[in-house]
Write a structure and sequence with these properties.
Strand content: 15-25%
Number of helices: 7
Distance between the termini: 92 Å
Structural class: alpha+beta
Strand order of the largest sheet: 4-6-7-9-8
Mean pLDDT: 80
Largest sheet: 5 strands, mixed
Radius of gyration: 35 Å
Low-confidence stretches: none
Length: about 300
């Protein structure tokens, strides 16, 4: 017993009736026992630490997801409010001018013609907004389909431009058309692409400044045909050249202007569905430029 007195690890009474007799437990190899318990303590401590880290990371992920859900809910709420406002504006104008015409409250045939032109413009605006919402719903469900066929992007872009003719004239826009004479065909859904170009032109009108100028260009660049719309509007905030194509996103400088935040996201969806890509950039002397790139349609691709 004396030989192991220093090595005794634990002692206890032999029984409740034998207080003077104690039993001791000691390690034959003290260093091995110490190493074993040290290793066990490290493992237990490491497990507790890993558990704590997991709990913290899990909490952070929950907070992140909750924050994202709150953000999405806020964006959707703003979207509904913006759509309601966008619908109310043309509907109010249509009702007002229709009532004016029905009551004969116009002074001349020219004024009546102006009222009818406004009605046509507002009805087109309303139709365009409804089409955007319906397209967004189809894309969200994953059932948006395209009827692709060889087409001339120059003619498609010009058709979109012509739908804004009355708006450009009424608001005093200077419009420049630069459509190249030689344009290879692209394989595209003409209605969808025309709607995409119309979205860009509509934004150019909506976010215009005192300098009302729009340039529409279509040309071939390598293996792509590019539709480019440049304006002299409020431009794009630095760093938001890619974010403007996100759903519900609206530039920091566009907060005071009504909008749904869908137009550019639909443009990107349409172009990418055709195997193309989109670009947006600010112009050094004010305004912005949007480019839609579509791959050239060739016979080899058609046979493939």
């Amino acid at each position: 017993m004396a030989a192991h007195r220093e090595a005794i690890y634990e002692t206890a009474p032999a029984s409740r009736w034998m207080d003077r007799v104690r039993l001791g437990i000691w390690a034959v190899d003290a260093s091995a026992a110490t190493g074993y318990y040290r290793t066990r303590n490290y493992l237990v401590g490491g497990g507790i630490f890993a558990l704590a880290v997991s709990v913290v990371l899990g909490g952070l992920m929950i907070l992140r997801d909750a924050g994202r859900e709150v953000q999405v809910a806020r964006l959707r709420s703003e979207f509904v409010a913006n759509v309601s406002h966008e619908l109310r504006t043309p509907l109010t104008s249509i009702r007002l001018y229709a009532e004016t015409l029905l009551m004969g409250r116009y002074r001349s045939a020219e004024q009546m013609q102006d009222y009818l032109t406004t009605l046509l413009h507002e009805s087109r605006r309303l139709s365009h907004l409804v089409d955007n919402v319906l397209d967004f719903a189809r894309i969200e469900r994953g059932d948006r389909t395209y009827q692709r066929q060889p087409c001339d992007l120059g003619a498609v872009a010009r058709a979109a431009l012509e739908t804004f003719g009355g708006v450009f004239a009424a608001e005093g826009f200077e419009v420049e058309e630069a459509i190249a004479a030689e344009r290879p065909p692209v394989l595209a859904d003409q209605e969808a692409v025309e709607g995409a170009v119309a979205n860009i032109l509509g934004n150019a009108v909506k976010y215009s400044s005192q300098r009302k100028a729009i340039r529409l260009a279509v040309e071939q660049r390598g293996a792509e045909v590019v539709v480019e719309v440049a304006d002299r509007g409020i431009g794009l905030p630095t760093g938001e050249e890619e974010r403007v194509f996100e759903q519900f996103h609206r530039g920091a400088n566009a907060a005071s202007t009504a909008g749904t935040g869908l137009g550019l996201s639909l443009v990107k969806s349409v172009v990418e569905a055709h195997g193309g890509r989109v670009e947006a950039a600010g112009r050094p002397d004010g305004g912005s430029v949007f480019r839609l790139y579509f791959p050239v349609h060739t016979k080899e691709k058609a046979h493939a």
